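Feature request disguised as a bug report, sorry. It would help if multi-protein outputs had a clear separator. Right now it looks like this:
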Amino acid sequence: MQDLVADYTAALLRKDIHSKRTSDMKSHEAATTIARYVYPGRGESGAAGVEASAYFIEPQAQLDLADLERQLAWHKARGRIEQECHRARSG
C-alpha cells in the first residue's frame, strides 16, 4: 500500500517552486490509468479530471488513529454503530 501511495504522490501531488501542482507526462500517465477505472469511457477528459481533482494522501500512508477514534465515538453517540464496536489491537 505504501508503494502505491508513494507512486500517487510522486506523480500527482508534486509542486513547483511556486507551490503549484506540476502537470507533466508522469502525472498525465498516472491520471490516465486512474481514469480508466474512475471515469470509464471518458478518455482524455477523465484523465484531466483526475489530474485536476487529485486529493492529498498522507505520503507515508499512515492513518490518523486519534481521528478515527473521534469518528467512531461520534457514530456511536448517534447510534449509527454498536457501542461494543472497538478497534482491534495488534500484538
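(second protein starts here, but nothing in the output says so)
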Amino acid sequence: MTADLTSADRLTDFLTTYPQTMAFSEEDPGTVFDRFHTPDAVYVSDGLRLDRTRVVEHARPARKNVLSCEVDVHRVVLAGHEAAAHYTLVARMRKGRVVTTHVAMFARIADDGRIAHVDQVTRTETER
C-alpha cells in the first residue's frame, strides 16, 4: 500500500509520522520509505543528495541513537503536484543531547501521491 500525499492534511500527517516510523518502527526502513516515495525519489538536503539507499542507511543509526522525536508543522502549502512545508523536528538522543532542526521543504508529488523529489534547507541547533 502506498500513501497519497496530495492534500495538506495528508502531507502534514506524513511530516509528523514518517520520522517516528523510520526511527522507532519494527518495520524495515526500506519498506517505510517505499510506502511514501517513488522508487527514484531523491532528497537534496542542504545541497547533499540522498537517494533511497542513503535515506535508509541514515535511518539505521537513528534507530539506535534517538530516544524520541517530535515534529511541529508550522505551514503546508500544496499547488497541484508541488508542495512546500515549514516544520521543526526535535530529537532527544540517548546520550542526552536535544537536536532541534528547522526545515523548509519543497517537494514534487508524483501522480500516484508519493513523494518524487524533495529540496530542503535546514538549520540545526544542539542543546547539551
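Even a blank line would do. Unrelated, but nice: The longest helix spans residues 8-24.
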